[in-house]
Amino acid sequence: MTVNFDTLKASLILYGLNAIYAILLLAIGWYLSGAMQRFVTRVLSVTHRVDPLVTLFVGSLVRYGVLAVVGIAVLQLFGIQTASLVAVLGATSLAIGLALQGTLSNLAAGVMLLLFRPFHIGDDVEVAGKAGKVKSLSLFMTELVALDNTQILLPNGQVWGAAIVNHSAYPGAGEVKVAFPVRAGSANALADRILEQLREDPRIDEGAAPTVNVSKVIAADPAAPLVELTVSAKVKPSDADAVKQRVLDHASALLAVA
């Protein structure tokens, strides 16, 4: 068996040049995909009308779209028929999809969250039994930051399939109202102490002063008369539960001392 060295040399040169072209094409495609992602992100951010979650999603979509085109071009450079490859990839994707139904449901839920945008980055939400501030949303996971600065990662399938309570959807002040019984003789002093504590709380709305009122008599026993003390304050909806709990704790401590 004879070897035609001229043909072998020409083939090596051809494939060597194709390999060099493929490497250059991959490098250019990688740089171009990043540049396109940054360009699209910058354009969408300048408008101030597109949600940051959608901006990140579209930027990533453009990046991977460019990489897919570059990958097909590299395969064609080596003479690989992309039509048969697409058929093989389709069959493989079907098998992988059946094996990863949970992951794909999270992907579909992530797309729905990005399209309908029930919340935005920075919103205070309660979802799937967790509460926190939305930090990011990817195609598979939603990241929250709890009040104690703890990271909470939720699969998008749980987020989309659960009730979402968004405390930041309607900006403005909510009302905290707490009522509890106290002895009639200590009602005024207790009201003053609670008012002092509320005025020092930065979460209280400065435009509406908190109030403490004696609303009604609960027990008219001369030996130990009881009245109902009602505390009202304006706070952000996301801070309502925390402020209410602080008022209750402070009132319980004052009542214990009294």
Automatic annotation (TrEMBL):
It is a multi-pass membrane protein. GO terms for molecular function: mechanosensitive monoatomic ion channel activity. The keyword Repressor does not apply. Its main location: membrane. It comes from the Bacteria. The chain crosses the membrane at residues 12-32, 53-79, 85-116. The keyword Nucleus does not apply. GO terms for cellular component: plasma membrane. Residues 103-168 form the Mechanosensitive ion channel MscS domain. Residues 61-101 form the Mechanosensitive ion channel transmembrane helices 2/3 domain. Keywords: Cell inner membrane, Cell membrane, Ion channel, Ion transport, Membrane, Transmembrane, Transmembrane helix, Transport. InterPro entries: LSM_dom_sf, MS_channel_1st, MSC_TM_helix, MscS_archaea/bacteria_type, MscS_beta-dom_sf, MscS_channel_2nd, MscS_channel_TM-2. It is found in: Cell inner membrane; Cell membrane. Belongs to the MscS (TC 1.A.23) family. Mechanosensitive channel that participates in the regulation of osmotic pressure changes within the cell, opening in response to stretch forces in the membrane lipid bilayer, without the need for other proteins. Contributes to normal resistance to hypoosmotic shock. Forms an ion channel of 1.0 nanosiemens conductance with a slight preference for anions. Homoheptamer. This is Small-conductance mechanosensitive channel. It comes from Bradyrhizobium nanningense. The lineage of its organism: Bacteria, Pseudomonadati, Pseudomonadota, Alphaproteobacteria, Hyphomicrobiales.
